[in-house]
Design a protein that fits this description.
Layout: H1 9-49, H2 54-94
Helix pairs in contact: 1-2
Length: 110
Protein backbone atom coordinates (compact mmCIF):
# COMPACT_ATOMS: atom_id res chain seq x y z
CA UNK A 1 0.00 0.00 0.00
CA UNK A 2 1.23 3.45 -0.85
CA UNK A 3 1.48 6.52 1.33
CA UNK A 4 -0.65 8.44 -1.17
CA UNK A 5 -3.51 6.08 -0.35
CA UNK A 6 -3.60 7.10 3.33
CA UNK A 7 -6.87 8.81 4.28
CA UNK A 8 -6.38 12.23 5.85
CA UNK A 9 -8.74 14.65 7.57
CA UNK A 10 -8.85 16.89 4.49
CA UNK A 11 -10.08 13.91 2.47
CA UNK A 12 -12.90 13.36 4.96
CA UNK A 13 -13.84 17.05 4.76
CA UNK A 14 -14.03 16.82 0.96
CA UNK A 15 -16.21 13.72 1.15
CA UNK A 16 -18.47 15.39 3.72
CA UNK A 17 -19.11 18.34 1.40
CA UNK A 18 -19.98 16.04 -1.51
CA UNK A 19 -22.25 13.90 0.69
CA UNK A 20 -23.99 16.99 2.09
CA UNK A 21 -24.63 18.38 -1.40
CA UNK A 22 -25.89 15.06 -2.71
CA UNK A 23 -28.07 14.52 0.37
CA UNK A 24 -29.71 17.94 -0.03
CA UNK A 25 -30.51 17.27 -3.67
CA UNK A 26 -31.82 13.77 -3.03
CA UNK A 27 -33.95 14.74 -0.05
CA UNK A 28 -35.36 17.74 -1.89
CA UNK A 29 -36.30 15.52 -4.83
CA UNK A 30 -37.85 12.93 -2.50
CA UNK A 31 -39.80 15.59 -0.61
CA UNK A 32 -41.11 17.24 -3.76
CA UNK A 33 -41.90 14.05 -5.68
CA UNK A 34 -45.21 13.46 -3.91
CA UNK A 35 -46.66 17.00 -4.02
CA UNK A 36 -45.38 17.78 -7.51
CA UNK A 37 -46.50 14.40 -8.86
CA UNK A 38 -49.88 14.81 -7.17
CA UNK A 39 -50.33 18.31 -8.59
CA UNK A 40 -49.38 17.03 -12.02
CA UNK A 41 -51.96 14.25 -11.78
CA UNK A 42 -54.62 16.71 -10.62
CA UNK A 43 -53.80 19.09 -13.46
CA UNK A 44 -53.81 16.43 -16.17
CA UNK A 45 -57.08 14.89 -14.99
CA UNK A 46 -58.71 18.31 -14.76
CA UNK A 47 -57.54 19.20 -18.28
CA UNK A 48 -58.73 15.91 -19.74
CA UNK A 49 -61.99 15.36 -17.85
CA UNK A 50 -62.85 18.59 -16.07
CA UNK A 51 -64.42 18.22 -12.66
CA UNK A 52 -66.14 14.94 -13.54
CA UNK A 53 -63.27 12.61 -12.53
CA UNK A 54 -61.53 14.70 -9.91
CA UNK A 55 -62.27 12.17 -7.16
CA UNK A 56 -60.01 9.67 -8.94
CA UNK A 57 -57.24 12.22 -9.24
CA UNK A 58 -57.48 13.02 -5.52
CA UNK A 59 -56.99 9.35 -4.81
CA UNK A 60 -53.97 9.16 -7.14
CA UNK A 61 -52.45 12.30 -5.62
CA UNK A 62 -52.82 10.78 -2.17
CA UNK A 63 -51.16 7.57 -3.31
CA UNK A 64 -48.23 9.55 -4.72
CA UNK A 65 -47.83 11.36 -1.41
CA UNK A 66 -47.90 8.04 0.44
CA UNK A 67 -45.24 6.63 -1.86
CA UNK A 68 -43.01 9.71 -1.49
CA UNK A 69 -43.03 9.63 2.31
CA UNK A 70 -41.23 6.27 2.72
CA UNK A 71 -38.76 7.31 0.03
CA UNK A 72 -37.90 10.46 1.96
CA UNK A 73 -37.46 8.45 5.16
CA UNK A 74 -35.27 5.90 3.39
CA UNK A 75 -32.92 8.50 1.92
CA UNK A 76 -32.70 10.50 5.13
CA UNK A 77 -31.69 7.34 7.04
CA UNK A 78 -29.23 6.45 4.28
CA UNK A 79 -27.39 9.77 4.44
CA UNK A 80 -27.50 9.87 8.24
CA UNK A 81 -25.78 6.47 8.25
CA UNK A 82 -23.08 7.74 5.90
CA UNK A 83 -22.51 10.80 8.11
CA UNK A 84 -22.14 8.55 11.18
CA UNK A 85 -19.66 6.34 9.35
CA UNK A 86 -17.68 9.41 8.34
CA UNK A 87 -17.67 10.55 11.97
CA UNK A 88 -16.33 7.16 13.03
CA UNK A 89 -13.65 7.24 10.35
CA UNK A 90 -12.64 10.76 11.34
CA UNK A 91 -12.36 9.71 14.99
CA UNK A 92 -10.15 6.77 14.08
CA UNK A 93 -7.84 9.06 12.12
CA UNK A 94 -7.71 11.57 14.99
CA UNK A 95 -6.75 8.71 17.31
CA UNK A 96 -3.68 8.14 15.15
CA UNK A 97 -4.79 5.09 13.24
CA UNK A 98 -3.38 4.78 9.73
CA UNK A 99 -6.22 4.00 7.33
CA UNK A 100 -5.78 3.35 3.65
CA UNK A 101 -8.41 4.40 1.13
CA UNK A 102 -8.64 0.89 -0.24
CA UNK A 103 -9.73 -0.30 3.22
CA UNK A 104 -12.59 2.18 3.53
CA UNK A 105 -16.07 1.05 2.66
CA UNK A 106 -19.53 2.28 3.58
CA UNK A 107 -22.39 -0.03 4.39
CA UNK A 108 -26.08 0.78 4.08
CA UNK A 109 -28.02 1.58 7.20
CA UNK A 110 -29.41 -1.26 9.26
Amino acid sequence: MEDSDIVQLKDIAAVRSVVARTARRTLLAAALAGPVGGALVLGVVYLLYGTVRMHVSYLLAGVLALIATPQFIHWSRHYRSIRHQLDSLEQRIKNGERIYGSQVGFHPYR
